[in-house]
Amino acid sequence: MPTPRNTGPLYLRFAHDLQERIDTGQYPPGSRLPSEPELSAHFGANRLTVRQAISELERAGAVEIRRGVGTFVRRPVVRATIDVDPNSARLDVDGRSTPLPVHGLKGAEERTVEVAVGPDAASDRQAAEHLRLPTSALTRVDTLITASGRPWAVSGYWVATRLLPAGFTESRESRNTTVAVAEAIGIDLAYDWRSFSAIAADIADARRLGIGAGTPLLVREGVNCAPDGRPVLYVRRRIHGENASYVLRYRTWRRTDQEPGGTDTGD
Amino acid sequence: MPTPRNTGPLYLRFAHDLQERIDTGQYPPGSRLPSEPELSAHFGANRLTVRQAISELERAGAVEIRRGVGTFVRRPVVRATIDVDPNSARLDVDGRSTPLPVHGLKGAEERTVEVAVGPDAASDRQAAEHLRLPTSALTRVDTLITASGRPWAVSGYWVATRLLPAGFTESRESRNTTVAVAEAIGIDLAYDWRSFSAIAADIADARRLGIGAGTPLLVREGVNCAPDGRPVLYVRRRIHGENASYVLRYRTWRRTDQEPGGTDTGD
DNA sequence: AAGTGGTCTAGACCACCGT
DNA sequence: CGGTGGTCTAGACCACTTG
Questions:
Q1: Residue A15's closest chain B neighbor by CA?
Q2: Which CATH class is domain A80-248?
Q3: Residue B70 CA distance to nucleotide D16 C1' (Å)
Q4: Which of B15, B193, B214 sits opposite A59 (nearest CB)?
Q5: pTM of the entire structure?
Q6: Under CATH, what is the fold of the domain A10-73?
Q7: What does the buried/exposed string (b/e) look like for A81-117 if buried means 16 or more CB atoms within 10 Å of the residue's CB?
Q8: pLDDT, tens digit, for every residue of B12-59?
Q9: Which terminus of chain B has fewer Cβ atoms in its 10 Å neighbourhood, N or C?
């Protein structure tokens, strides 16, 4: 049984106190917490101290703060689920793209945000390593995927500059950037590897996604390779953690039939 | 080019200002930022406001704060990588466990922290749904995996109480809980599905992992099933996001030979 | 002992939301 | 308009680390 804080900083005690009230149903999902002045009076502490406690709950995902309205207990989140076929390494079939089905994501669009040649940040060096090229030989395409108009994910695509046709940097919108790149360079792409990790949103990503710095992001990285096995494309996508879940189904692989016309985002 | 904040709250402007100095190498990785009083004087703002800016950078993972010492620019993190064989759904081969190789994780141990019968929280209801049983019929085993003595991941294992032998709740330590469960119930387990997502550490997990609430966690969920396909075991593991990355290799599947005696954590 | 970050207070003003 | 949360200040004391 975890200790119910009778020691330590006040704001942590208050946070645990409030969390317990949420857990026991005293503040059920959707309900409003007492206002900051009310809690301040109740705990006999300064409003800033109470705010720090509430801030802990918000960072932990337990409450949602609505400015000018109040602080509310969050309901369980519903994630979009993305099926990853553990067995198929092919991205294209018969020249047509077969993006993975995404369930629970509506009205998705992928828009190019920025195109840079020969960048040199941490992720650029990562890409260079994976593609076995110097950063100066790479072009990076950054995109933003929105769903129903709201930011859903940011992605970076790295590919050798010399493979890209001259006009490529002009294309500003596409339904699936991986497929667009594959078509532009005229190479049939297959998966080499993919990886999943979690990071805190840095300040730049936070701004583009309209979330706070430090919000958990699900990171999907991967390399696509040519038929001869040479790595060609490195992708690094950051998705607001609450919005997605990648699923590997090992038994009976079948497309779920809910969400007809499921969005294809290149996942 | 992202806007260099000339508007908005002071603490965000300061945060962007400092982030830019980090990006441009004015404050290189490992270096110390000016102290809070120094920054306070430099920006001409209250120390609390400066602290709020630094707090943004810390949440974004850009700096590390060491109490009594200073605030330092973080170096790139090194993650343990866990290979996921996309093609094999079998957990046991010839009655021996074949856990997945983990690279970069040293001195791992899994210890049972708590055993509960018939719980009823959000994740318990999730488990009940996946196993198609009421929560009252389930036993949950919580474990903590440490690496070199430091917390690495917390896990929950849910299984039908009636399948477990009487003495199972006594076992306090095992090298691999999934295998221990499989042996205890005498069923050969295979993967049904696995999923990856990212969440903010809630207050309970944060305490067990020794991190702050809201820290990004990589969540691996999964169901293991019996040979006849019935779901038997539901696992939900939360790993400090910075510490792990799951990798699916689609080409030449081979065990990497670095990290000999690689730890087996049931991944 | 000196310097660092961590917590807390009291009070003020602002921005946003609903009625 | 009144109530909510968001930002900022000035000042105080504490806990921790290093020399």
A1: B203
A2: alpha beta
A3: 11
A4: B214
A5: 0.87
A6: Arc Repressor Mutant, subunit A (1.10.10)
A7: bbbbbbeebebbeeeebebbbbbbbeebbbebeebbe
A8: 999 999 999 999 999 999 999 999 999 999 999 999 999 999 999 999
A9: N
